[in-house]
Amino acid sequence: MRARAAVAWIGCAVALSAGCDRGPRVAKVNAETTAPEPETRRVRWPEAVDLTRPMPSSPRRERAWSSARKTRPCHAYFEGFEGKPKIAFPLVEARERAEVLFGCEVEAYEVLEDGARAVAYALPVSGAGLLESPSMRLSVYDEDGGFAWSKVMEREVRGVSFDSSFRAGFIADLTPHLVCGGTSWESGVQVLCAKREGGEEAWSARLPTWSGLTPSASGKSLLISDLLGVKQIYPYNGAERLHAKFKGSGGRSATYALGEDALYFGANRGIPFRLSAYDRETLEERWTVQIDDALEPDYGAVVPGSGVAVVKSGGRLIGVSPKDGSPLWSARIGDVRAPLVASPDAVFVLIRREEGPNRVFELDPKTGKPRGWTKAPDGTLRIGWREGHLLAGSVRTVWSTPSGPR
C-alpha cells in the first residue's frame, strides 16, 4: 500500500514538472468562507420624520417635468424593420435615453468598464400562441456607438406564466474577457456568457436555484444567491468558486439589496430579526445587527457612492450605515409599499395620498432630512433615476426632470 502511494505521489510530481497544470485554475467547489463571525449587535431605529402628514414640514419644490412621452416596446428602438440590431446605438442624448429605457422597462442596460454599452431586451413573439415565451437579445455597442455583436437567448417555454415567473433581466460586466446576460425566474436563472471581443459564446446554462438577488459581476465571477446563501461561480463552466451561508433562509419573504461592494440581506423568518452585510468580493460577513421589526420583503435601495442601505421596517424607511449597520435616520411612510429609488445625491420616495396629488419626497441620503417634495405627474405608478434625471412612469408613459439640487 505504501509503495502504491509513493508511486502515485511520484507520478503526480512528474506530471506537474512536465507542465500538465497549465490550464486555468478554478477555485475549489463549495469552498466556504472561514472568517470568524462578527458579533451581532442590537440596534434601535431613531425617531422618524413623518412623510404621511397632510401638511409636511418640508417645503414644496417645483420641478419642471417634461411632457409625457409614450414609449414603444424596447426592441422597436434597437432594431430595424428586418429584425436586426441597428448599426449604431440609437439613444445618443442622455435625457431621451433615460426616458426611453425607463419607459419601455428595458430588461437590463449597462455601461461597461471599457466604455461600451450593453443592452438586453425581449424580442417579439412570432404569434405561435400561448406556449411561446419571448427570447432575449443581448447586444453590445462599442465606445464610439458602433454595433459590435449580439446574441439571442432562447428562454424557457412558460407561456401564460411568463409574466408571473419573470423576475428580472441582468447584465454582468466581466470585461475585458466576458459579458454575461440572462434572466432570473421565480425558480431559477438562465445565463449566457459571451466573449467581449467578437461575441463568441463561452458558456450558457440554466441554474436550478431560486435567486432573490439579480446576478451581477464580482471580480472575475458571477455573483448569485440561492435559498441558503450567496456564491460566486466561474463564468466559463458554472463551477462554484466561493460560497457563504446566510443567517437564516432566503426566499420570497427575504430582503436583498446590492451595493457597489456589499450585499445586504435580511431573512425575515423567525425572531430575532436581523440585517447582515456581506463583502461582494470575499463573501465575508461584515456585520450583523439585530432589529425589532421584520424588513419589507424584496424592497430597498443602496445609495451609489456612499453605500448607505435604505430598507423598510415597521412602517419606516431606515438609512443604514455600510460601515457597521448603525441606523443613520428613519422616515415614516406607513404600511404602503412606496416606490423608492436612490441617486448619488438623494433618496426619492413616492407617497400616494387618498386626497390630493401624490408627492415625490427628496431625502438627504446621509441624514434622512426631507429637502422638499414635488407633485408627481397624474397617473404616476413608479419612479426611477438614470443619468441625472428623476423619472416618473405609468403604463408606457414617462416624465422626467433633472434630479440635481434646486
Molecular structure report:
With 406 residues, the protein is mainly beta. The chain is built from four helices and 30 strands. The strands form seven sheets. It has a five-stranded mixed beta sheet, with no helix packed on it. The chain has a five-stranded mixed beta sheet with strand order 2-23-22-21-20, with no helix packed on it. Strand 8 and strand 9 (178-185) form a beta hairpin. The longest helix has 16 residues, at 2-17. The chain starts with a helix and ends with a strand. Residues 1-34 have low confidence and may be disordered.
How much of the sequence lies in strands comes to 35-45%
Largest sheet geometry? 5 strands, mixed
How far is it from the N-terminal to the C-terminal residue, by CA?
Answer: 80 Å
> Order of strands across the biggest sheet?
1-19-18-17-16
Backbone structural class: mainly beta
Overall morphology? globular
What is Rg? 23 Å
Number of E strands: 30
**Low-pLDDT runs:** 1-34
Give the helix tally: 4
Overall pLDDT, averaged? 87
Q: Helix proportion of residues, in percent?
A: under 10%
Layout of secondary structure:
Layout: H1 2-17, E1 40-42, E2 49-50, E3 69-70, H2 75-78, H3 94-103, E4 108-111, E5 117-122, E6 136-141, E7 147-153, H4 162-165, E8 166-174, E9 178-185, E10 188-195, E11 201-207, E12 216-218, E13 221-225, E14 229-233, E15 240-245, E16 255-258, E17 262-266, E18 273-279, E19 285-291, E20 301-302, E21 309-313, E22 316-320, E23 327-332, E24 340-342, E25 347-351, E26 359-363, E27 370-375, E28 382-386, E29 389-393, E30 397-402
